[in-house]
Amino acid sequence: MARILWVEKQIDYEPQGIMSMSAVLKAAGHDVALTIAAQEDPMQFAKDYRPDLVGYSVMTGSQHYYFKLNRQIKAALAERPPFAMFGGPHPTFFPELIYEEGVDGVCIGEGEGAIVDLANAVAAGHQWQSNIFNWWFKRNGEVIKNPPRPLVRDLSALPMPDHDLIYRKHAPTRNSPVKHFMASRGCPYSCTYCFNHAWYKIYVHEKRGYQRTVDSVLAEVAWVKAHYPMEQVVFLDDLFILHQDWLEEFAEKFPQAINLPFFCNVRANLVTPEKVALLKKAGCNTVSMGIETGNDRLRNELLKRRMTRESIIETGRLLHEANIILTSTNILALPTATLENDLETMRLNTQAKVKYAHAFLFQPYPATELGEFTHDNGYMTGSFEDIGAIAWDSSILIRDEQEKRQMEHLQRWFALGAEFPSLVPLIRQLIKLPHNRIVDRLYWWLHKLWKGWAITQRIYPIKITPQVIWHNARHFFKMET
What we know:
This protein is an alpha/beta fold. The chain has helices spanning about 15-25, 40-50, 65-75, 90-95, 110-125, 165, 170-175, 195-200, 215-225, 245-255, 275-280, 295-300, 310-320, 340-350, 370-375, 400-420, 425-430, 435-460, 465-480, and strands at about 5-10, 30-35, 55, 85, 105, 135-140, 140-145, 180, 185, 210, 230-235, 260-265, 285-290, 325-330, 355-360. The chain has 19 helices and 15 strands. Helix 10 (about 245-255) packs parallel to helix 11 (about 275-280) and helix 16 packs antiparallel against helix 17 (about 425-430). It is globular.
């Protein structure tokens, strides 16, 4: 038996990858623990737990934090240092981080089979295996590069994600009436700001998307409902409505088995009256749709979204008539975009009857088509290493400083402007104010308060008690994001 410690900086909501890794490891007979740096000393926890392997799931922008934390943990366990393994989006697309001090292994792509094989090898005393697919290993300065194995094609064959690992450790997630799940993996589209096209360079001949069976999804949701507080189900899948036959079965079974409202992601060119009717039948109360930008050139040529503004507006109309709340995601400060383009995006959200418009400042993530375009054409300052872990504080693109500042301020006002178009003339003036401690803090609070209200009253309408308000607000405002 190997002992595996997962290390997280903070928990926003259930980390699906870690829960799945923990489930397959426990099914293989290994011991798994979790430490969260935001609530305890991970070095002390590691000293007490004495892991054989320590794992980090890393997003672009957070890698340097985890590099430093890993070195500290290994120093704290200097007498018997654990094997340090890095996985997740950033290591998958940048496995060269294997050369970083303290990194022993990098997992590329899906990790369930790979991590079990590694844990089995460590438990058997054969840590340095050269033939474990998906892994890059470092040994005495030499890097062993193994190819990836095929994707997991039968997702329902995997054990149920280990929700207990998170809920027992993290009270805000455990006590939250909103719980998160995934019913599928993969997306058939290749939007330029997404890692999707890079993913299928690794998995060249794989189908673009695999679905769990409806029954396996229901079993997981029912288990969580039986063991923990839950009033709202959130499906994190990229495209929950991709397969109509699956959606038809889900609409029949979900109300009978679960009977709770749920949230899912949709795409305008996939939404039809029939699918909206099925979502309503199943109990869907809220969906999210990527609008990204209101400008046709930016949306279809720069982002390769391949959809019209008319389809976006029509989707909003269909969902509004079905009494399903529509939220959206939007990207501000895109390369070659102007402030007027961003204001145009805000107007399109109003026309589509969006009930909460999330806005992010574009970040040129490496390995994405748009990130590389931004870098190669000299639109960004510094390098990819300057990208932060969150996407709504500042832009690193080169443009007129006044326009850049207004775009950054608009991110804070975006949802309010989409909701109340009469405020737009005032917003135009307010975003002209300089960056300073008072202005930035005031705009941050306005953004947070409106978002918090929208989430609890519209997106996830849950029972509000003083205890829920206190715990949720405390957690919400502590999050870096």
